[in-house]
Design goal:
- It contains 17 helices and 13 strands.
- It is an alpha/beta fold.
- Strands 3-2-1-4-5-6-7 form a seven-stranded parallel β-sheet, sandwiched between helices. It has a six-stranded parallel β-sheet with strand order 10-9-8-11-12-13, with helices on both faces.
- β12, α14 and β13 form a beta-alpha-beta unit.
């Protein structure tokens, strides 16, 4: 088959970009008999590193990169989208793959397509994800068009599939699942010196203990709840327990809640215990995870929860939301708490910080569960969906 791919999301630094880069690369490696025609704007092309005999790129001029123009309060020019549609129409494609509905644009009529919808968070919590009525309207129209044009819908977990079927009224028979996985960069560090070096670099004192959070600072991530739970737990511990919030502090395409998080920290008086190192490369995050007491992911909802799985691959126990597939994906590898249960979250943090035996047991299970996931496995599912859609 000749498979077209919307690769404009390649430059996204959040989960959508990770999914696109990892999955498409694994698909190209598995599908050697297929040709992958990747459509890129200039920003995505600057980061595109997939070099293979069965991969070809088509650069499409865009006034604004889709990675930023499709942001929570952004605007995508109809002319830019038309350029992409026309570029695709000029190629003799058998099927088209959209790795995320986030950068979706109209496809040429009649072209078989598979679109990926990662979760139903924007539909379940529109006020926490889309800042204006205009943004919410455009999102609904974009998703509706994508579902109308796609023969099959791909998503990232059984949990997300159930949510999407319920919210959008899609028959489950039309949904396929491609599980995500940790990248090869995420593995336990055996070097206390390396862990100590990154800890010092971001401002942690010698012999510090810390929790990690990795991701965006959007309202639905419930980081204000996490800050208060961390304060409750740390006030009952003999040794200081730091909270390291890893993520871009500016330029994020998604709705930010930084001011409310900072207000919660000031109200708790934990300014000295909360660190903001900003965006960090995977190699640094891996070391922070390897030295952490746990990763905390207290979101209102997660379609997959990749930061937790990446931490688990480093042997880090997780404390994560029950409104996700994580209790199943990482069974035995963490403690799971209902969204916005501040008291339960504080109790989980305190328990895992106090109990070394529990923490080591969770660490081993977390690593073992993460090892069962792989991008080639997800890529096989995605290729099967594309072959089915093209048939």
């Amino acid at each position: 088959m000749r498979i077209g791919v919307d690769a404009t999301c390649w430059a996204n630094d959040r989960g959508y970009g990770r999914f696109t880069r990892e999955l498409v690369s694994a698909m190209a490696a598995l599908g050697r008999d297929h040709e992958f025609v990747c459509f890129l704007d200039d920003r995505a092309a600057a980061r595109f590193r997939l070099a293979a005999d069965n991969v070809r790129t088509v650069r499409v001029s865009q006034a604004s990169s889709p990675t930023t123009a499709a942001s929570a309060d952004g605007y995508r020019s109809p002319v830019d989208m038309l350029r992409l549609t026309r570029a695709i129409a000029r190629e003799p494609l058998d099927v088209f793959f959209s790795p995320t509905v986030y950068t979706y644009f109209p496809l040429p009529p009649g072209l078989p397509a598979v679109v990926t919808i990662h979760d139903a968070i924007a539909e379940r919590f529109p006020l926490l994800t889309l800042p204006t009525a205009r943004a919410r309207l455009f999102w609904r129209l974009k998703v509706r068009l994508a579902l109308w044009q796609a023969r099959l819908v791909l998503t990232v977990s059984d949990f997300a599939a159930r949510e999407i079927a319920d919210v959008h009224g899609i028959p489950p028979a039309r949904i396929r699942i491609a599980l995500e996985a940790p990248s090869g960069d995420y593995r336990p560090s055996q070097s206390p010196d390396e862990i100590g070096a990154i800890a010092r670099r971001i401002g942690l004192p010698a012999d510090a203990r810390w929790l990690t959070y990795v991701g965006g600072f959007s309202p639905h991530k419930n980081l204000d709840v996490m800050v208060r739970a961390h304060h409750r737990a740390s006030s009952r511990l003999a040794r200081p327990l730091y909270l390291v919030l890893v993520g871009a502090l500016s330029g994020d395409a998604f709705l930010s809640n930084l001011a409310a998080i900072r207000d919660a920290i000031r109200a708790c008086g934990t300014d000295q215990l909360v660190l903001w190192p900003g965006y960090l490369p995977d190699a640094d995050i891996r070391l922070l995870h390897s030295g952490a007491v746990a990763l905390v992911l207290p979101s209102e909802n997660e379609g997959f929860g990749l930061p937790a799985v990446e931490a688990a691959a480093c042997g880090t126990p997780v404390i994560a939301t029950t409104a996700s597939p994580l209790p199943s994906l990482l069974e035995g590898g963490g403690l799971f708490v209902a969204p916005r249960d501040e008291q339960g979250l504080a109790a989980a943090i305190e328990q895992i910080a106090r109990d070394d035996v529990l923490r080591h047991r969770l660490s081993a299970a977390a690593r073992a569960r993460a090892a069962t996931l792989s991008w080639p496995r997800g890529a096989r599912s995605a290729l099967d969906a594309l072959e089915e859609a093209a048939a």
